[in-house]
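Exercise 7. Predict the structure of 3046_t:CDS:1 from Ambispora gerdemannii.
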Amino acid sequence: MAPPKQIGPPQRTIKRPALSDVIPTKPLAPITLRHPPNKNVTTTVVGGTAAVYTRRRVTRENLGAIENHHHHHSQTLITREEKAVSNNRQQERVNKNVSTTSVAVAASNVTRTVAASTTSTTTTSSHHSKRIKVQEEWEDLDKNDVNDPLMVSEYVVEIFEYLHELEKETMPNPNYMEFQKELQWKMRLILVDWLVEIHNKLRLLPETLFLTVNIVDRFLSVRVVSLVKLQLVGITSMFIAAKYEEICGPSIKNFIVLSDGGYSEAEMLKAEQYILQTLDFKLSYPSPMNFLRRDSKADNYEVNARTIAKYLLEIMLLDHRFLATPPSKAAAVALYLARYVIGNIEWHANLVHYSTYTEEQLLPNIELLIDHLKKPRKVEAVYRKYSAKRFIRASVYVQEWINRNYRDTTATTTENYR
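Solution. The predicted structure, encoded as tokens:
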């Protein structure tokens, strides 16, 4: 029997250059809060019945045209009301049974309309005479995907609105270690680092790793776990996450072997049932990767920034101080710092719109992430993983950037992984 023919053009293997060969190594100054220039702006005039202008640049040339339009609009309203009054008077002459009350109501309506029109014109003039409020214009990037059914551009806005609501329901308790009797934060650090190593060996999807850590944290938020059972919780959580995210997940025997045979198959299956019942089978966790893909669209899918951002997201998994950070904000923080590291320091209007976070909102978490990167590494799995060529040596490049810009903190050398 002849082998099946290949459908479509043959796949080509693209060799990616190392990050250090593409990006200049010119040192950058430490991050400071800045405000990007207002380039493309829209003007919104508020007050009375004034018109609302969107996506229009306000200049001296068209400022007079805008005022003339408001004046014409107000005069049109007055003319219409005068015609209405005239019609009312003619009707009054024809029908003598019209009560004086209806006439008074009509007169009061005319007065309110004329006053509203006058107020609108006055308010518009005062807005133009003062400094006009402007908003940065963002570009609709979803309109280019109308013909791509995989991008579901008709529903993408509603989908991410739902994910933003869902992430609030799947947040763990950031202080759950306070009621754990035998556990400490450093034990969680070691467990997550081990899970990253297992995840890398099995070549699982990034979403599987983030869901695994979320299951562990949510379970520990509601149940007290002994130290001897912590590893069982971790490996079983990855077993559950792989079932949920992977197309063809590893078997339970693979996880038993990778855990050095510390637990039997029966123990893992029993732990799986207990964890799922505790979490009420709620595994719909919006991964930071979902939001990172959305944010990267506003960054023109820049591959270097996106790879570094993925590394920074896994770094945040290790630090318990980011447990209170929603996945959407974590993705925006990672992309912001990744772009800054490679020299793209402007957080422009598209990124603000599609990430839903401004530069001011991200700055505290960015400082926290830099503080983690400045400290000597206690675990190595994430760093080793992203020091590989297939990840364009992202961890090495970030560490070198930290060493150049924050020399006051002694960092672990990166020579061992070059």
